[in-house]
Amino acid sequence: MSEHSPRPALSPVVAGCWRLAEWGWSAPERLRWIEQCLERGVTTFDHADIYGGYTAEALFGEALARAPHLRARLQLVSKCGIRLVDAARPGHRVKSYDTSAAHLVASVDNSLRALQTDHLDLLLIHRPDPLMRPAEVADAVAQLKAAGKILDFGVSNFTMSQFAMLNQWVPLATNQIELSPLRRAPLHDGTLDQMLALDLRPMIWSPLAGGRLFSGQQPDALRVRAVLEAVAERHGVAPATVAYAWLLRHPSRPRPIVGSRRLEALDEALAAQTLTLDAETWHEIWSAGAGVEVP
């Protein structure tokens, strides 16, 4: 068993806040969505400083401030390290990455103010930075933890080697990666093997391939959709539930992020927890995505 243990204590399904600014909700409507997530056992909310052009965190924080007692029942995840060219950040000349200690600390402080909270349960570096100095990142994380501003730390979109390198300097809690029947590389490039070896649970973004699984007309999407629909009919569930069950079947115990305003989308993901696909069906879905049978 790794010294890391399968922390942090996040919910098995995570609510994604990427598009929160696009939903056009009032603060009471946003608060009601938070409450409805909690009622379903979805207690973890995934943010990034850049979401909504640096506005989504503040929209969430405004809603949460209307019921501050809810903070003890939920976990806030945020990501930083990307500098967008945006009106909210007039000093940014080109899109770039910044994992300097100054940027990490300032980003966390900005997120805490926006979210109207005193700590993040988990901070992630959003994208690998070729100029990252691991010792500097480790020092910043130590500073943030000592101040109680973050409880845990991890990364997003890191390769196996990038994760291993930074993990030598500062213990990482997770890797938030893209995975779906249409994006299978982490199954075979060592990314999920690494999570298993360290007994860490990955977080999964775009578990439905950004909606392409059910709206795309590409050959791979059409093949997978046909299999998902057939399996769904056999089990009496939604096709999306089968797609989530395909992810959850992996022994690394992935946590899918559901970035939809539709509560039905959360329910479909939650239902996958009680649908265990047999190995043959899992490989049938893999083969549909690949367009070939397994080697």
TrEMBL record:
This is Putative oxidoreductase, aldo/keto reductase family protein. Residues 13-286 form the NADP-dependent oxidoreductase domain. It comes from Sphaerotilus natans subsp. natans DSM 6575. One of its GO terms (molecular function) is oxidoreductase activity. The lineage of its organism: Bacteria, Pseudomonadati, Pseudomonadota, Betaproteobacteria, Burkholderiales. It comes from the Bacteria. SUPFAM superfamilies: NAD(P)-linked oxidoreductase. One of its GO terms (cellular component) is cytosol.
